[in-house]
């Protein structure tokens, strides 16, 4: 170790005993230590490779959009959200159809297009459909089945045919099935009495036509329904059985049927009245057995 020079000897004189430590220089006495040590980050040795590594890691993480799978919180448990949960069923079906083989996708699209065409056709027909009109065109005294007169207990049944005129202005024909008719005879008091019925299993009405067909009908008179014999006396008078002039009779009827156009079926109920000539010829009945005319 080199011996101290002259200046050091004057600043620190030699002494055989240890004295107080020397005072610090003036510029050190006014400095206070920092309460928190400041650590300066050491720069990376090569910033180029560091940035490149960060970009690579960032590119490996997929960005989740609104249409991709996402983790959602539900009751404290994480569940996978399905990709097309927010789409309706038609969009999902179309998406699945695109993933099918060509032959399967072709069949599926054919079915879908066929359904759309059928719906359009049915809608067009329903939008232009006009209700056919039904009128009574007359009476056929020749019954369609059985004899004209038949006796049932205390009553009598008169079988004949009602000529029905149907005007169908529509593009398609109409199939009428299970045609049930019930007739009532009106009286002067505003009421009515059961007087007969008719039935026809089926009848087709062509398109764009004024079509007539014969509906089998039977006038059924039963004294138990006509207590005051008002219906009987009126029929005898209007049918000319008492020697007077023959007149038309009027009945009220209710018809229940099934009408079919293509695959559409409806069950209408028609209530109206009809006026036609009496189907009983003068001399057709010899009398009724209740004391008035006798059966």
From TrEMBL:
Which ranges of the sequence are coiled-coil?
Answer: none
**What residue spans carry the region label Disordered?**
1-81
Q: Which GO terms describe its biological process?
A: defense response to other organism
Residue ranges annotated as compositionally biased, kind Basic and acidic residues, are: 1-11, 53-69
Q: Kindly give the InterPro entries that the UniProt entry links to this protein.
A: NDR1-like
Q: Name one GO cellular component term.
A: membrane
Instruction: Give the source's domain of life in one word.
Output: Eukaryota
- Provide the transmembrane region boundaries: 102-126
Q: Which UniProt keywords apply?
A: Membrane, Transmembrane, Transmembrane helix
Any idea where this protein resides?
A: Membrane
Query: What protein name applies here?
Result: Late embryogenesis abundant protein LEA-2 subgroup domain-containing protein
Organism this protein belongs to: Mucor plumbeus
